[in-house]
Input
Amino acid sequence: MSTSTHRLRLGLEDLLEQPLRTVPVEIAPGADSLEVRLRYDRRQATVDLGCEGPAGWRGWSGGARDHFVIAAGTATPGYLPGPLEPGLWHVQLGLHQLPLEPVDIHVEVLTPATTPVPAEPDPPPAAATPRASARDLPAPAGLRWYAGDFHAHSTHSDGEQSLSELATLATGNGLDFLAVTEHNTISHLPHLPRVGARHDITLLPGQEVTTPTGHANAIGDIGWVDFRRHPDHWLEQVEADGGILSINHPLQEDHAWQHRMRRLPPALELWHVTWFLEPTATAPWTLLSRWPEGTILLGGSDYHHPRHGYVPGTPVTWVAAEDRSAEALLEGVRAGRTAITRLPIPQGPALVRLDDQLLAVDADAAVLRDVAGRSRLLHGDRVVIDDRWQGPYRLEAPDGTLLAISP
Output
């Protein structure tokens, strides 16, 4: 066995100078597993943890874990299993929060690993629940509106439930699909087809590209996106690989989007779950004036754990697609066929497009507003919106609570 301990003493000045630090680790030929343990005073600091091997990125767990194991046939969630290439590896330390006075940070490296990787919880599928798509919202010929969520996390990053537990929650809330978007890792991607089939839900592959100055979701069956590079590169890579890049929670507290880009991504997570905390807020509509016309609008619950008090599908993003396969859903998103509602309840107010018409469905006594500031009170359960109005549009309850959005 080989054991080495690396001691760093870092404070706020170090964070400001270089927020991502690496600890080099030499892996000898024949090593079959690696274990890394991180120790520091969590009352004073928050340090993210990740790993890169000679052949590329092996995983990231942010501040959710203080140790990980990588072996040929298994790995801690968030990390990619596989043979250990001999040579120089780098333990990645993200200096998320550090005090003014430096603190001790210890990184212990063991080869081989001594801690087993526990099995992930794999509950049976939930009892059959009607899917929200059975509502059969008005859709163009050959298409159906499918209900889902474009932002959720499992134990593969800083979520607290396994992929299988996450799928159970999503199907129990009537969702047809769920994008699993882990922070700076794609270790979950190989598991999504099996878990999705077991629970009869489409699990869309995704990565939340995460930096201290903003997050973005890379959706699609694409490779790992390097968060250490400029967002202009993220966009170029994602589009070249056939994926979709979306800016996440652009106005959320200390996670707001601050990056400048030559060209904004085509999609925007306009309705993040935090809007539920202030349901009459209008700041997101101000943001729209800075985004190009035709921006694809998405919603995301950003689900992490049950203590949130809500489940995946808060809010719901609807996609008009030929079927609920990942390919068809992403094609629907690329075409801009999205709508967002507050919840997947059977008769909740919705705004959907039917060919060249915009329809307000089950929205009697709701207030329609457009991006130009015009508004009207709706009467009836199916109202055709005059094409002189200018999108994006939103439906509000009489008290101003947001109910639905359409591009």
